[in-house]
Amino acid sequence: MKTISLEDFLKKNSISMVISGRPEGKEARKKLKLDKEDLKKDEIVKVMITDKIFSVNTSFFLGLFGKSVRKLTIEGFDKKYQIECSNKGILKNIEDAKNRAVKGLRVLKSAKVLENEE
Amino acid sequence: MKNKEFNIVLGIVVITIILITILTILSYIFQKSNPHIIALTKDIVIISSSFLNLLLVVYFSIQKLTEKKENDKEKIYGFWFRKIAIEENLTLISDFFKSVDTFLIDFSKDPSIEKGRVILEKIQDKKRSLGYEFIETVKIFADKEDSIVENLDNYLDNYDDDITQFIGEIANVSHSPIKKGKIDVFIKKNIQAKRDFMTLLFDYDKKNYRK
User: What is the number of alpha carbons within 13 Å of residue B142 lying toward its C-beta?
Assistant: First the structure.
């Protein structure tokens, strides 16, 4: 099973221990080659969010996994990417990001905007 | 659709003018040989001019009416946008920024990681509820191409990132109550943040409903 540790995306010498920002999330997505990973629907990926991390914000999660949620749907995403995290606040952010990623497809953005985003 | 109508009217006007010109030339050529043609031509010219005038009057009246209808529609949308999206939500927006101030003051008394996490969770809950309650009402007015909802969402995300960074830094460094001054700086920033957030709404209103 492949494992992604979000600790790897903490900024160097970070004092706040916060992972945030949509561009940073998109950068991480590229680095982890998640476009290819999304295609392997049967292979489960473990996403580790350790206690060391103070917060993973909605913005970062949307940049990192927004496209995957839209591609796989929330249910499909939850099956493929198993998130391990004990921080309630972070888990709420993740749920929020997943819902917003799907809503973004349905209501907020035109196909053109989504294309540019990708 | 407007262009199509305009082209049709323009076509009729041009054809009528050409017809009048041809008839005038013909009457000039044949005026000596047949006096009846002159009278007939004159009649046709008078009728055509009247028809032309009538056509133009009808066209401009319809155009004015259409413009008025569109203006009225924009006025109605504008009224409801201000009423539902701005006025009704002012308290919600003010409450959000006020509660962030209160949470920060509370956090300054015990700037530990545990307290920081609790405070951050409370702020992010408030942000989410503002996002869902308020932005949902704005969506009623924004069509698919509108960036207002996206702008508001992004604004709240950036605000969330700023405040998380701020709390995270304090929580991971301070082990004793922090100076009130540091929190005051963020509270002052909050006043500006609220102003900027409202500006997004007023700008949208100005751009779309107050042309």
Answer: 23
